[in-house]
Design goal:
mainly alpha; Fumarate Reductase Cytochrome B subunit; 5-stranded parallel sheet; 4-stranded parallel sheet; 29 helices; 11 strands; 53% helix; binds iron/sulfur cluster
């Protein structure tokens, strides 16, 4: 049924001659064809990546991604202004897009059946909703404009971390951003102009339901009738052509993130980096075609928001690594090598170190595109993956490329020697396995051998807590507290090996498998209820890596065990310490395994006044030791992250203790306070030292 004259509605092609309508449909068809071609180029590129099964539990994946995308939760995390501006743009865009689809459906489909949606109350509600969301859309765009041009956050500084490629011109990135923003702004503004000049031609009362358009129409009511008609026609064409330009431009620009980011969030692995994938048939990634389709999609999904760049400790230390730059360099190379050149790419001048060969088979990505020094700078802290709002999995790509470097022996002497020790002795200290439990000597009670006697807890001690003289005293304290609390525990003694967590992240897959298998065999030969470990790196390997090798053991960090005992009332403290302290969350505990509450519960129980650093819990800042960095030559760091972290704690003011719960952290931060000369102001302690102090004589 067609609308009656007095029924609220509007003509879709108001004012446009039939030939103009034909021209518009032809232009629309062309824009859609360009869009489809650009989209297909992308799909063709992803099909050149290695296969990877990411289509499991598709319903759950889609549901999770929808919640993330529509709620915009990851975008707002840690960036209120940028996040809310993006939410307004997203919802404004979505509602305006749906509105346009309804108009097309009504005009191009339903009317041929004699139906009309856009009339009466539906039309009034439709007009009001679109008008309001149009305002939100423009408000979001203006906020983004202010953020980019006035506030200029550090994250949006596109300067590269790698000084060897300073000659790289990234002005194309800024141009692409500007086109994106201004195109949407113009589309929004001209949309209101079209609406206002249409309403102004008759000022029907029901158009009050388009409050913005009606108000603007009122303002334009003084124009002559010809001006209103001509103005409407011109603004209609400008608006229409801008929309078609937008459609055609999407697959060649940042606008494509609408699709790539949505797909990336659907196919994202929530455990990316926590448990690494097995290497492909080649030892790691050498060619661009070694990357999986999901990794090629990762490169395209990057919106250059810079959150990973700002969060990265390697970047903060002044090395050549920035996870943002790494992803963008891989994108640039993939696009060149796989035949999908970008419209506005970063351009490498002749002074830059950038491979010129475009034959994908001829370029070693892990040496010529991303420099070995850059790959070795990664501490595998996972901050980039955690910070990325669109589910990019930087760390797996880094480790796959490291595997290739290991295969080519492109690693420094210190690391080579540590790996040799790990292979020969099962620990990075190059010490005999027989000395592993030597730290237990001098304890006033025997420590059980879990291979010979059944125990409740098998304590997986780890290399640092076993061999490093600075940490051995802490191990004795842990043993004393556990013993005093009546915990039945034992060790693997000389059968324990390095867990292989960092060996795997270095890229030495064969050695990781060897160490893991030896540990698994020893663990299977012991009788215990659960594993407890003081080492967050071992905790991650045992919890997340070993299950893929068929070894699933219940595992706890010692802070969890202590918190449990405290909650159960079997561990109580005669003293309340009253210290003002800050706590450093170890990456492998907090970020990798979301374990942030137990250490804090223990600190509360011993009466510590906890003052949090700005970067805490899952947003902690890496000490710089992970991913094998502790074994490497780190002279490329201009400012050590451990020292930056100590400065962050000192900036809290009157804080006397810097509490850690990881043997590597303890060693790193002890060195940092020494080199900064601030031992008199800040004392590095392990959580167990506070527990021991609160127990006074070390017994419960
Ligand atoms: S894992 Fe950490 S160090 Fe490595 S690139 Fe990511 S943020 Fe940087
Ligand atoms: S990788 Fe993710 S966090 Fe980093 S710049 Fe790109 S979109 Fe932002």
């Amino acid at each position: 049924m067609l609308a009656q004259l007095d029924t609220p509605t509007r003509a879709i092609f108001h004012n446009l001659a039939p030939w103009m309508q034909v021209v518009f449909y032809i232009a629309g068809g062309l824009a859609c064809a360009v869009f489809a071609w650009g989209f297909w180029r992308r799909i063709r590129k992803y099909r050149r990546g290695r296969a990877e099964p990411r289509f499991d539990r598709l319903g759950a994946r889609l549901g999770r991604a929808c919640v993330t995308i529509l709620g915009n939760t990851t975008v707002r995390r840690g960036d209120a202004l940028g996040g809310w501006a993006h939410t307004l743009i997203l919802w404004g865009f979505l509602v305006l897009f749906i509105g346009t689809c309804i108009v097309a459906l009504d005009h191009d489909v339903l009317r041929w059946f004699g139906w009309k949606l856009l009339q009466g109350n539906f039309y009034l509600g439709f007009s009001a909703i679109l008008d309001v969301f149009g305002v939100l859309f423009l408000a979001g765009l203006l906020a983004m404009l202010v953020r980019r041009s006035v506030l200029r956050p550090k994250a949006l500084d596109y300067r590269r971390a790698d000084p060897h490629n300073e000659a790289c011109d990234r002005s194309g990135f800024a141009t692409d951003d500007a086109i994106f923003l201004w195109l949407l702004l113009l589309i929004g503004v001209t949309g209101y102009a079209v609406e206002a000049l249409r309403i102004a031609q008759g000022m029907p009362e029901f158009e009050r339901w388009s409050p913005v358009g009606y108000a603007l129409a009122h303002a334009a009511s003084g124009f002559s009738a010809t001006t209103k008609v001509d103005g409407h026609l011109w603004s209609w064409w400008i608006h229409g052509l801008l929309v078609l330009l937008f459609v055609a431009y999407v697959p060649f620009s940042k606008m494509m993130h609408i699709f790539t980011d949505a797909a990336n969030l659907v196919f994202h692995d929530a455990n990316a980096g926590r448990r690494l994938p097995a290497p492909p048939s080649t030892p790691g990634y050498r060619r661009i075609t070694d990357f999986t389709w999901k990794e090629l999609l990762d490169f395209d999904a990057c919106t250059k928001c810079g959150r990973c760049h700002v969060a990265c400790p390697a970047n903060a230390a002044g090395t050549t690594l920035s996870p943002r730059d790494l992803i963008l360099d891989l994108r640039t190379f993939a696009n060149t090598a796989l035949g999908t050149p970008e419209w506005l790419p970063q351009r490498f001048g002749t002074a830059s170190r950038w491979p010129t060969a475009t034959d994908p088979a001829a370029v070693d990505v892990a040496a010529d595109v991303i420099r070995p020094e850059t790959l070795w700078s990664c501490t595998t802290c996972l901050a980039c993956v955690e910070a990325c709002p669109v589910g990019i999995e930087h760390l797996t790509s880094i480790v796959q490329m490291r595997r290739n470097l290991v295969d080519q022996s492109l690693l420094d002497d210190n690391l080579q020697s540590a790996l040799r020790s790990l292979g020969d002795y099962g620990n990075s200290f190059g010490e005999s396995a027989k000395k592993r439990a030597r730290w237990t000597k001098g304890l006033p009670f025997p420590v059980k051998d879990a291979r010979k006697t059944a125990v409740e807890y098998l304590w997986f001690v780890g290399d640092f807590a076993s061999y490093d003289p600075r940490v051995q005293e802490l191990s004795r304290k842990v043993a004393t507290v556990l013993h005093g609390a009546g915990v039945d525990f034992g060790l693997l003694h000389d059968a324990e090996r390095n867990s292989g967590n960092d060996v795997r992240r270095v890229g030495e897959e064969g050695l990781f498998e060897m160490l893991a298998e030896e540990n698994i065999e020893a663990l299977r030969g012991a009788e215990f209820r659960a594993i407890v470990t003081t080492d967050p790196h071992s905790y991650n390997a045992l919890r997340n890596e070993y299950p893929a090798l068929g070894a699933q053991f219940p595992v706890q960090h010692y802070s969890e065990l202590l918190a449990e005992r405290i909650a159960a009332g079997s561990l109580h403290f005669p003293r309340r310490l009253g210290h003002r302290a800050t706590y450093h969350d170890p990456c492998y505990l907090a970020r990798y395994n979301r374990q942030v509450d137990a250490p804090r519960a223990v600190m509360r129980a011993v009466g510590v006044q906890l003052i949090e650093m700005p970067r805490c819990k899952t947003e902690t800042f890496c000490c710089g030791a992970g991913g094998g960095r502790i074994w490497m030559d780190t002279s490329n760091e201009q400012r050590r992250t451990s020292e930056q972290r100590i400065e962050e704690a000192l900036a809290l003011g009157d804080v006397r203790y810097f509490v850690t719960a990881c043997p590597k952290d303890y060693a790193m931060y002890t060195d940092a306070v020494n080199s900064l000369g601030c031992r008199d102001r800040l004392q590095v302690v392990d959580l167990i030292e506070l527990v021991g102090e609160a127990l006074e004589d070390g017994t419960a």
